[in-house]
């Protein structure tokens, strides 16, 4: 296996929301989406990240191996968009699999065609963000088309890969019943989604947008109430899904 360098924003150890158990998380930089609520806008441009050797990261991952084995965790590659650097991703995951470490990739699915069979085999769990169902809403929220994400989700279902779906609930933007129910119905039809996370919108990234000189369009949008978040979760439950 040859080393590959990739653009990395940061790494975090001990994360507990990006996959099962305690995770070693690599946040890569570079993302083709422009989500209005992105809380890591500094990961959007690839070259803003630091060029990093996959082998160096793997050395660090190796030092956490015992900890993964006892805690049931593993390596998660998040971002940014991990599929924007497929060779770097492949090297990281291949190294992790050689060590017997569980692997997860957090993706919007927009670049799903970059996942070849070899890369597919190296990923134990996909954390797939389906940001909306209504195509015009998806485009408004992310700046790109919805279809590639749906096509990728269907491909994962055909291959029976394990998927956790994430959906961010933003008042006035993604919370229309038609939008939430559309995602719920679609996800339920796939048959391979073992968990859904409905995440209430928050403005934690707003300062970063300002620091980067980028206009944050959701300054006046409030977080959803706990009741509204629970109602959205209930919609997914109504379709028989396991919701967190
Ligand atoms: S896909 Fe993720 S990293 Fe990319 S813009 Fe959207 S929220 Fe930000």
Automatic annotation (TrEMBL):
Short name of one Pfam family? Radical_SAM
Q: What is its main location?
A: cytoplasm
Gene Ontology CC terms, in alphabetical order:
cytoplasm
Q: Name one GO molecular function term.
A: lyase activity
Tell me the enzyme class.
oxidoreductase
Enumerate the spans annotated as Radical SAM core domain: 17-242
The record's InterPro entries line, in alphabetical order, gives: Aldolase_TIM, Organic_radical-activating, PFL1_activating, Radical_activat_CS, rSAM, rSAM_sf
Give the UniProt record's GO annotations in the biological process aspect.
glucose metabolic process
Reported cofactor(s): [4Fe-4S] cluster
Matching NCBIfam families? PFLA (TIGR02493)
Protein name, per record = Pyruvate formate-lyase-activating enzyme
């Amino acid at each position: 296996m040859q080393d590959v360098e990739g653009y990395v924003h940061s790494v975090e150890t001990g994360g507990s929301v990006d996959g099962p158990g305690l995770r070693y998380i690599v946040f890569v930089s570079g993302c083709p989406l422009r989500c209005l609520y992105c809380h890591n806008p500094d990961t959007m441009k690839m070259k803003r990240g630091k060029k990093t050797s996959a082998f160096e990261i793997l050395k660090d991952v190796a030092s956490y191996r015992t900890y993964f084995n006892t805690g049931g965790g593993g390596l998660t590659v998040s971002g940014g968009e991990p599929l924007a650097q497929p060779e770097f991703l492949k090297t990281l995951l291949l190294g992790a699999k050689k060590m017997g470490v569980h692997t997860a990739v957090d993706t919007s699915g927009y670049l799903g065609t970059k996942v070849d069979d070899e890369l597919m085999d190296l990923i134990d769990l996909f954390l797939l963000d389906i940001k909306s169902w209504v195509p015009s809403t998806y485009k408004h929220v992310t700046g790109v088309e919805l279809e590639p994400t749906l096509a990728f989700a269907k491909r994962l279902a055909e291959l029976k890969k394990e998927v956790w779906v994430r959906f961010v609930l933003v008042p006035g933007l993604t919370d229309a019943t038609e939008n939430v129910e559309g995602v719920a119905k679609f996800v339920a039809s796939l048959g391979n989604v073992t968990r859904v996370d409905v995440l209430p919108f928050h403005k934690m990234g707003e300062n970063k947008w300002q620091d980067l000189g980028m206009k944050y369009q959701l300054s006046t949008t409030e977080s959803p109430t706990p009741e509204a978040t629970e109602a959205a979760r209930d919609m997914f439950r109504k379709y028989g899904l396991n919701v967190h």
